[in-house]
Specification:
Blueprint lengths: L10 H14 L10 H27 L4 H14 L7 E11 L2 E10 L2 E8 L2 E8 L5 E5 L7 E5 L4 E5 L4 H20 L1 H4 L13 H17 L7 E11 L4 E10 L2 E6 L6 E5 L3 E6 L10 E5 L4 E5 L4 H18 L37 H6 L12 H4 L8 H22 L9 H9 L3 H12 L1 H7 L3 H9 L5 H10 L12 H17 L9 H11 L2 H15 L9 H17 L1 H6 L4 H13 L7 H14 L1 H14 L1 H6 L3 H13 L1 E2 L25 E2 H12 L4 H31 L7 H21 L20 E2 L1 H11 L8 H12 L7 E2 H13 L2 H10 L29 E3 L5 E3 H15 L10 E2 H15 L5 H26 L6 H9 L20 H11 L3 E2 L1 H8 L3 H8 L4 H24 L9
Parallel strand pairs: 15-16
Antiparallel strand pairs: 1-2, 1-7, 2-3, 3-4, 5-6, 6-7, 8-9, 8-14, 9-10, 10-11, 12-13, 13-14, 17-18, 19-20, 21-22
Helix pairs in contact: 4-27, 11-22, 12-18, 13-18, 14-16, 15-16, 16-17, 16-18, 17-18, 19-21, 19-27, 22-23, 23-26, 28-29, 28-40, 29-30, 29-40, 33-38, 34-35, 35-38, 35-39
Length: 1071
């Protein structure tokens, strides 16, 4: 019996340790056969945990990093990666192999997850590239309650018994997310400078990055905003007459506050709105107070700030920088208050009106350019194209006035600018529906588009002027969609609205060509123009596309697909019965995609959908998730009884088309799919206010942090889904054109892609080899350059030629590079291999022939000048074919007949290949000799090729004599014949040392070569005369063993090649 004890300084600590032992260790011991194995396992585990805890303490204290250095040395020795593979962190853990745990060390590097174990005399090494991971999740097995499961294409691996599993999982998730974004998502890669320097990633950087992304998502700030500090503090909240505990976030251009109690109170203070930041006197009631004053005559009091002096100092520096870069312009046209800032907003106890939220800077210059500048629409379209509703004007106005009164009361207590206190009370007001007269202004404040608007005076007008009149694919798409944008609204049955929509969409496409224009942007922009001025609508569109719905409006709409995947998980969690009935939730996801892309604007009556947009601008994507769940719950019965996807779509369409807004002052404007609801009997109507209230009450508990975590988890799946789609489409195109088995073709694709990826891991980007580009056609997304091709050729080609293999690979690459862009696709690579493995003999010889004439063989080919030790072979030997009975026949007659037969059979439709010169023929022979090396029939093959080569030299000479004017002297021919080599000599080629050849010898070679040529037909006919050569080229070749070896050796070959490059070249002395 093995004793296991828990010890500690206190009873609480002992209980904590014992709980860990119970959860992670005791259940595992039953898998071992004897006590010795149990003791060995437990001791190893405990020692590893002690070592890990010690090293983590050292890392926290930032003292001597000796432990990390020791781990780094072991990591490098065990896995032999290039130096560029940087270790991020490491942990002690167990890797499960079936029911048996293997105690060892988990190493997390910038591109790979690696595990090493040496247990009970057995060594285990695992290397999993992050880019291969399709699913990363926390799960449990029969022995342990909490494990980390990693799923790749073919395997699942479980890791457990971590000292701090939460930390490990978070780091693993971040590394997988960062690596997949860096390698598989160009659109995000180009926008995120941090992804472009993977060698700088550390554990601390990952934690900072996660915090930064949460900060930007929580406050919906620009992607470029960088978080500088997070400080615990308390903020004076006058509406509750107390200090609210929370955290202060400071960044490049913002000071933000979030209460610890979710939704209690949030504040966003753009530094351009801040007038001063002051330290106040420290007292027992107000420890370390700081007062932040803003332009709307409000002040925010923060207390209990640690390290107050340095915090205030850094804030003042950034404040000064912001005001220097974006000076605040004052609206001197205001009659009420000549000193009022552009964000005209009086004190909290003063007038309750919104000021004019448009920039008035550079008025004089704008007036002087009015004639040549495009005229922008000066007001929201709904104020010009207001419709009269079915309700009486008095009732309509009374409801609107009640809402306005409630909002004005709220402004008095909580503030009216972007710096307002955001509490649960304002969320309830938003859910009731924003008054039409305030809607555009509040959208600007909630999204903080008002800060962008104020920071960029004249920017939109300049964009419009620059983009007007330019015609391209994007502008054609915009023109095509202009009249499909809210066609039922009078504002867009008029050239005024259409022109404003055209200007906003074209200007945005000009501002952000990476997004350009995507369908659904027209519908969203139309609604923004109804409630906001033209320039304001432009900045609202910027906020939605670049901050609030990240990665939604790009080539692959990755962001929308990620959120669809998140939505599926939320359905399973909140509506399990519906999820169980709808076996394939992807059908629901496809239906709901337009909900997310258009914020319900395209599938709900407009007067109802704008209330959804109200909630979206206040709460972000969370509002769309919860409303989607509320819609599904309301239709759960109908969906469960539906027999197919079409019927489910009908159920949802009818429901959504009958959502009304009782408080809307305008008439009902139908949705784009109203034709679905041509009912014979009245369909029950749902009030949008009730639906939104239900969504908050039943599904409003999702926090920003939970949603961001789910997005991270599902982004891995979505990106890998795209990769799988690319792979299947490439294989679908290639499979019918080759004879390689589908499973082998799939292995080849994985090797091809991995070769590309390894260059991304460890090499500086080269102009020839671009990054993976998902916007290209499927077959062109992964392409490799000559160096990568050479590695693959060495791994999987059956034509291995020793040291000559690399040269043959380079020639093959030049042959396949049809468009001469120095890159080849998978299809070309596989087609070539297919000939090598499965081609007929004549196809193989033809390929070899083409590899030894231009463009494959060039004048500068690094092996094409290697000379013969002696002239190639005798042309004077009497050549005869041996017959089975020992008789011999004259070769000359046979040869003439063979050439005649080949000429008759030649396919006239096929383009004739150019004839081969003697220099090219020498290289062709050299390749054949190299291919036969180490073959079991090596000697027979050498004799056969010597015979064939002599024969072909005679053929070439015959052609040379017939076409030559006698410039080649007979003496030269005699010298050639006198220096013949015996056919059984293994090597006819000297080392590549051309410098030692006498000058006269080189001259002689040039003279002899002259017009000496042989054709493909000559070579093929000659080779067919030797059975051993026919057997060599027709013997079956096994690609599976090559693929297995390639998977094992691909990394080591790449590592060897990189280490060879990093070392100075070794010069070998000639012996």
């Amino acid at each position: 019996m093995t004793d296991i004890e828990a010890k500690g300084a206190t009873l609480e600590e002992i209980n904590q340790h014992w709980d860990w032992l119970e959860q992670n260790l005791l259940h595992t011991l039953s898998v071992f056969d004897n006590k010795d194995d149990i003791a060995s396992f437990v001791k190893g585990k405990v020692k590893a945990l002690i070592a890990e805890e010690t090293s983590s303490r050292l890392a926290e204290q930032e003292e001597e990093p000796e432990k990390f250095r020791e781990a780094l040395v072991k990591f490098e020795a065990r896995f032999n990666f290039p130096e560029a593979e940087k270790l991020v962190t490491y942990y002690s853990c167990c890797c499960w192999k079936g029911r048996v745990p293997r105690q060892g060390w988990l190493y997390l590097s910038i591109n790979h997850l690696c595990f090493y174990s040496f247990f009970l005399g057995k060594e285990l090494k695992l290397i999993v590239p992050w880019v291969d991971i399709q699913k990363l999740e926390r799960t449990s097995n029969v022995f342990l309650t909490d494990t980390i499961r990693i799923t790749t294409q073919n395997k699942e691996r479980d890791f457990s018994m971590f000292l701090n599993l939460d930390e490990v999982f978070k780091i693993m998730e971040q590394l997988a997310d960062v690596t997949l974004r860096r390698l598989l998502d160009n659109e995000v890669f180009d926008l995120d400078p941090d992804l472009q320097e993977p060698s700088q990633i550390t554990k601390r950087d990952l934690e900072a990055r996660a915090q930064n992304e949460f900060f930007r998502a929580f406050f919906r700030l620009p992607r470029q905003e960088k978080l500088h500090s997070v400080v615990d503090c308390s903020l004076w909240t006058p509406f509750s007459r107390c200090h609210t505990v929370g955290r202060m976030f400071t960044s490049d251009r913002y000071i933000c506050f979030a209460s610890k109690e979710d939704g209690c109170c949030n504040v966003i203070l753009p530094l351009r709105e801040v007038v001063s930041i002051e330290k106040m006197e420290d007292t027992s009631l107000l420890p370390n107070p700081v007062i932040v004053s803003i332009r709307s005559k409000m002040a925010f009091q923060f207390i209990e700030l640690k390290d107050r002096d340095s915090l205030v100092g850094s804030l003042l520096v950034r404040l000064q920088r912001v005001h220097a870069n974006h000076p605040v312009h004052y609206d001197t046209s205001q009659d009420e208050d000549m000193t009022s800032p552009v964000f005209h907003s009086t004190s909290m106890c003063g007038d309750h009106k919104f000021g004019d939220l448009e920039m008035v800077s550079s008025q004089n210059s704008e007036e002087s350019e009015k004639e040549k500048s495009p005229r922008l629409h000066p007001e929201a379209l709904i104020s010009v194209f207001q419709q009269s509703g079915s309700q009486s004007p008095d009732l309509r106005m009374s409801r609107e006035q009640i809402k306005i009164s409630l909002w004005n009361d709220h402004f008095v207590e909580y503030g009216r600018t972007v710096c307002m206190f955001r509490t649960e009370k304002i969320r309830k007001l938003v859910a009731m529906g924003i008054p039409e007269s305030l809607r555009g202004k509040l959208w600007l404040l909630f999204s903080d588009a008002v800060t962008d608007l104020a920071s960029h005076p004249g920017y939109y007008g300049n964009l419009v002027e620059e983009s007007m009149g330019k015609c391209c694919l994007v502008t054609e798409e915009i023109e095509r969609d202009l009249h499909r944008s809210l066609p039922e609204h009078p504002a867009f049955q008029n050239e005024t609205g259409i022109a404003a929509l055209r200007r906003v969409l074209t200007a945005y496409a000009h501002r952000n060509p990476k997004i350009g224009y995507c369908q659904s942007m027209n519908i969203l922009t139309s609604v923004l123009l109804l409630y906001a001025k033209e320039e304001e609508a432009f900045w609202l569109l910027v906020a939605v596309c670049e901050r609030m719905l990240p990665d939604y409006f790009n080539h692959r709409v990755i962001g929308a697909q990620v959120d669809q995947s998140v939505f599926e998980e939320l359905i399973k969690e909140h509506l399990p019965e519906l999820a169980e009935h709808m076996n394939d939730l992807s059908a629901l996801a496809s239906i709901s995609l337009s909900w997310f892309l258009t914020l319900f604007l395209s599938i709900m009556p407009l007067e109802s959908a704008v209330s959804v947009v109200d909630c979206f601008f206040y709460d972000g994507i969370k509002a769309i998730f919860q409303l989607g769940l509320a819609v599904l719950e309301a239709n759960a019965e109908g969906l469960c009884s539906s027999k197919d996807d079409g019927q489910a779509l009908m159920v949802l369409s009818r429901f959504l088309d009958h959502i009304k807004n009782e408080d809307s002052p305008g008439p009902s404007v139908g949705s784009h799919h109203a034709f679905f609801s041509d009912d014979q009997e009245p369909y029950p109507v749902t009030d949008i206010a009730d639906l939104i209230r239900d969504s908050y009450e039943k599904f409003g508990d999702q926090s920003v942090e939970q949603i961001e975590h789910l997005r991270c988890k599902h982004r891995i799946r979505v990106l890998q889904g795209h990769e799988d789609t690319t792979k299947q489409n490439v294989l679908r195109v290639v499979t019918p054109e080759v004879s390689i088995l589908p499973e082998d073709l799939e292995e080849l694709y994985d090797l091809f892609k991995r070769e590309h990826m390894m260059s991304c891991y460890w090499e500086q980007p080269r102009p020839v080899a671009p990054r993976h580009d998902p916007s290209r056609p499927y077959a062109e997304q992964y392409r490799i350059d000559v160096r990568q091709f050479t590695h693959l050729f060495q791994l999987v080609s059956p034509w291995t030629c020793g040291a000559h293999t690399e040269i043959l690979a380079e020639r093959t690459f030049r042959l396949l590079d049809d468009n001469m862009d120095h890159l080849i696709e998978f299809k070309a690579f596989v087609s070539c291999l297919d000939v090598m493995y499965n081609g007929e003999m004549n196809e193989k010889i033809k390929l070899l022939y083409r590899l030894h004439i231009p463009p494959a063989l060039t004048e500068n080919d690094r092996d094409s000048q290697s000379p013969l030790k002696n002239p190639l072979l005798s042309t004077s030997r009497p050549l005869v074919f041996g017959k089975s009975n020992g008789d011999a026949i004259d070769y000359q007659k046979q040869l003439k007949q063979m050439i005649k037969d080949l000429a008759k059979e030649k396919d006239k439709t096929e383009k004739e290949l150019p004839k081969m010169s003697q220099r090219e023929f020498i290289q062709f022979c050299k390749t054949l000799y190299s291919m036969f090396h180490e073959d079991p029939e090596e000697n027979e093959l050498y004799q056969a090729i010597a015979t064939v080569t002599t024969l072909l030299l005679q053929i070439g000479e015959v052609g040379q004599r017939s076409s030559s004017s006698g410039s080649c002297s007979q003496e030269g021919g005699e010298e050639l014949r006198a220096s013949a080599l015996s056919p059984d000599q293994d090597s006819v080629f000297a080392d590549n040392n051309a410098g030692k050849i006498p000058q006269d010898s080189r001259t002689f070679t040039e003279e002899v070569e002259g017009d000496w040529t042989v054709s493909l037909e000559h070579i093929l006919a000659s080779l067919l005369t030797e059975q051993s050569l026919v057997n060599f080229f027709e013997k079956p070749l096994d690609i599976k063993s090559k693929l297995e070896n390639a998977k094992i050796n691909q990394y080591s070959l790449k590592t060897f090649e990189m280490s060879r490059q990093s070392q100075p070249e070794l010069k070998l002395n000639n012996v």
